[in-house]
Amino acid sequence: MSGERRRAIEARVAAAAARLEKEGRYTATRRCIQHGKVSVYAHCVSVADTACVLAETLHLRVNERALIRGALLHDYFLYDWHDKANGHHWHGFTHPGTALHNASEDWKLTPVEREIIKKHMFPLTPIPPTCREAWLVCLADKICAWQRRCRAAAAGAVLKPSGGNCAVLP
Predict the structure, then answer these.
(1) Burial of residue 63 (number of CB atoms within 10 Å: 0-12, 13-18, 19+)
(2) Is the pLDDT of residue 26 over 70?
(3) pLDDT tens digits along 121-145
(4) 33-87: per-residue pLDDT in tens?
(5) What is the DSSP secondary structure assignment for residue 11, as one 8-state letter?
(6) Which of 151, 153, 18 is nearest to 72 (CA)?
(7) Closest CA to 146 of 71, 35, 27, 63
(8) Per-residue DSSP letters for 29-88?
(9) Distant-in-sequence, close-in-space partners of 122: CB < 8 Å, separation ≥ 6
(10) How far is Cα 56 from Cα 100, in angstroms, rounded to an integer?
(11) How far apart are CA 145 and CA 140, in angstroms?
(12) How crowded is residue 127: how many other Cβ atoms within 10 Å of its Cβ?
């Protein structure tokens, strides 16, 4: 994929993220930490970019608007999942439902967007996605997580398992 096409995808994702920040509580994702020092916002933008690149590279016909919005909202849980004292022990299993609930409160979601948010943790959550867009976000989410882990490991960071999740330690 050319740099120009990749930049065009990044611009569409950035524009969609900016719209979400104006309409709902999306700005809060900038303050929530996904893993290590990566914010939920940065992670979701990366997942949206990656899902769009996958769709284009694989020549898949998708609803790009729903793909981008679903990817941007897939982790819209709005809490510190690292705080196990507040009942977030099962975050990996429960956060898709919380993200869907929060997103549904702030925006009118399409069925495809709902599917993306609800099913992005497959196979950790047992019901598989039923549309291309949800499969792409599910895959992009895992690709982005592994890329981050590999970059951290290459930089000499220690990856410490924590309740099934990894946190990057300095």
Answers:
(1) middle
(2) yes
(3) 999 889 999 999 999 999 999 999 8
(4) 776 778 999 999 999 999 999 999 999 999 999 999 999 999 998 776 656 666 6
(5) H
(6) 18
(7) 35
(8) GGTSEEETTEEHHHHHHHHHHHHHHHHHHTT----HHHHHHHHHHTT---S-TT-GGGT-
(9) 128, 129, 138
(10) 26
(11) 9
(12) 9
What DSSP string runs through 93-135? HHHHHHHHHHHHHHS---HHHHHHHHHTTTTTSSSPP-SHHHH
| 39, 161, 168 from 148: Cα distances, Å | 12, 14, 9
Helix, strand or coil, per DSSP, at residue 169: strand
Which phi and psi (to 5°) does residue 35 adopt?
A: -145, 140
Q: Token pair of 115, please?
A: 């599917």
Alpha carbons within 13 angstroms on the beta-carbon side of residue 43 total 25
Tokens at residue 167, please?
A: 């946190």
With 0-12 / 13-18 / 19 or more C-beta atoms within 10 angstroms meaning exposed / middle / buried, residue 33 is middle
